[in-house]
Amino acid sequence: MPLTVNLRHLEEHNVSLCGELPVAELDLETGDEMVQAAGPLQYEIEVQKLEGSLLVRGALRLVLKCHCVRCLKPFTHPLELKAWACHLPFEGEDRVAVANDCVDLTPFVREDMLLEFPRHPLCKPDCGGLKTKTGKARKNADEIAPSAWAELDKLKL
Q: Which domain holds residue 81?
């Protein structure tokens, strides 16, 4: 069930919503194998009706299953938007769709969560990456093993 708010309830007072939204409902498929949602999105939000718009504020939490892009180890990454806010106008180009006096907040939550996904997830900032043939991890991710081209450059022709 999508995350919706009824506009009739907002006429008298602000509405507070707490709960969980299943990952399937969020449709967070990014096509990225390195970052996947591990569980439902937890939300604690308050919806306020302003003149001609809605103001949604609160906190969003989601746990991600990631694979480190350097060493390929799996790890979890908690994603939390503590001071999330969204302004939804009723008029203009960016107007929000209203169906049966209800506004679906799910697309706006999805968009802001996707923007917070890590682009290059690392298990730790100083991850050394995959181990070399000798069994030791590189000390610095910028270290490059000597290439065959470097050996050819040494030739004096």
A: 4-127
**Residue 46 in tokens:** 């308050």
Q: Return d(Cα 4, Cα 43) in angstroms, integer.
A: 12
Whether 153 is covered by a domain: the verdict is no
Global pTM value = 0.74
Contact 30, 114 (CB under 8 A): yes
Tens digit of pLDDT for each residue in 35-88?
888 889 999 999 999 888 899 999 999 999 999 988 889 999 999 999 999 999
Dist. CA 56–CA 107, nearest whole Å: 13
Q: Assess if residue 37 is contained within a domain.
A: yes
Q: 137-143 contacts: CB < 8 A, separation 24 or more?
A: 137/71, 141/70
Under 8 Å between Cβ of 124 and 136: no
